[in-house]
Specification:
The structure is a homodimer.
Chain A lengths: L11 H6 L14 E10 H13 L6 E4 L23 E5 L2 E6 L10 E7 L1 H10 L5 H4 L5 E8 L9 E10 H12 L10 E2 L25 E7 L3 H9 L3 E5 L5 E6 L7
């Protein structure tokens, strides 16, 4: 079911589309699903599609374009991937070479766009269940880590799972697993709980991405598959050309978070 | 939905009913729900019913009799609580004074019987999900502990929550929380995960009931509300007269474990 975002957007999509807003999307369009973006030439896109299907915890697919089309009707009738994110990253050979607010001049008739679920959706569900999230309370980016868990390889795409970490009390942790299990399209249940060393994280105070998050004495860390995984893998696999969102500047879809719940 | 147990019982109910079998019921009538039993005079039963409603994690109510009736149609058309458990405990003033295989001579027209969900049901679901349970693999009783978590008080019934503990790897722990969440009538999701000290367990190697269970280096302990809670509370509250099952010798109902799943 696609709900028009235009009824509640307060004009933010126009601001993004025209390039007048190029910042983070956290907290914008409350209730609507936001997504990670990855765009590859068709040749690489075929491998990447299988990579997402093989690794649904870090890369839950919300939508894929037709080759050459920048429209994404699976997640919104009005979306144009060339203009509708505040900030894009352009990658050559595994390196980000520039950040842009518009990629119309880079679009090609062999490009395929992928919208991948984002933790903002399950964070809304956790907060609605009364669970406090420290990085949000403190206005920080979530802590993210490379693990020693390999993603399933798809063609040229191979590399480690990246996880995001949220600490909470044990009773909240149990509830969080229940809540997130309802949302498999946005990373679903955690992939790990407890000892970080078991998944190859040697220093929990030093995240590989994002900012550190304190873990209190009576808390346990929960680890979710993270949508940063594709960007980490792009750095390793070094495709000649691709485009992603800039971290935190997500695609705002026309789907409601609540509509993603499977139960 | 009540499924007749007689099609698959191999005569065990007759053996129990006639007193020729007085042992444990673990593994008997596979697939059928087993239950903890508590029987109180009507005066005390009124408090106990509210105690169960207030504390559904340790005391999930599967069935209650009409006062004076030993039949329990909520869980089986043919059940007679006076004869259909292998072994009963009779309690006077909070002390178990005898174990009997038949309580017909003790039945009174003011008694009320309670069937309370038992971990055997969710253990079946965990095993069907491929999760190994060490105490079962080793043929031991599960480890149980008094906690510092108070049950909600109902009239004269008050006391600490008793939990059962099962250790498992983190990925199995997450799956176990999902699986058990489908079975709220048989203790549901764990009440705690991780550090035993947080719920007042000072020495995990010394359970208050049952037998010790080793926790391996890469495992995390999960704690479920336990049907032993009522017997622990009977010891404390000391009602003048009551009857329970003898630990491990449960009421075998006519309900299927699978039929208890809420989803």
């Amino acid at each position: 079911m696609v709900i028009s975002i235009n009824t509640s957007d307060g004009g933010f999509r126009d601001a993004i589309r025209t390039g007048s807003y190029t910042g983070q999307t956290s907290g914008m369009a409350p209730g609507f699903v936001q997504a990670n973006l990855a765009i590859f030439p068709k040749d690489w896109a075929e491998d990447f599609l299988r990579f997402c299907l093989y690794n649904p915890k870090p890369c839950p697919l919300l939508g894929v374009t037709e080759p050459g089309s920048s429209r994404l009707p699976m997640v919104g009738a009005e979306i144009d991937l060339c203009t509708d994110l505040p900030l894009y990253r352009v990658w050559h050979d595994g390196q980000c070479i520039e950040e842009l607010s518009d990629i119309r001049h880079l679009w090609r008739d062999d490009l395929v766009g992928f919208a991948i679920g984002c933790s903002f959706s399950f964070e809304q569900a956790l907060q609605e269940a009364g669970i406090r999230l420290r990085h949000i309370d403190q206005g920080r980016n979530v802590s993210m880590y490379r693990t020693n868990i390999p993603c399933l390889t798809a063609g040229r795409f191979r590399g480690p799972l990246v996880v995001s970490m949220r600490p909470m009390k044990a009773s909240d942790a149990i509830r969080a697993i229940q809540v997130c299990s309802r949302f498999p399209n946005v990373h679903g249940a955690p992939v790990h709980i407890g000892n970080p060393a078991q998944i190859g994280i040697t220093d929990i105070s030093k995240p590989d991405y994002g900012e550190p998050t304190e873990i209190l004495e009576d808390e346990i860390p929960l680890f979710w598959g993270c949508g940063v995984t594709p960007q980490a893998i792009i750095s390793e696999v070094k495709p000649p050309f691709c485009i992603t969102h800039s971290p935190g500047s997500m695609l705002i879809t026309e789907l409601l978070n609540g509509a993603l719940a499977v139960l």
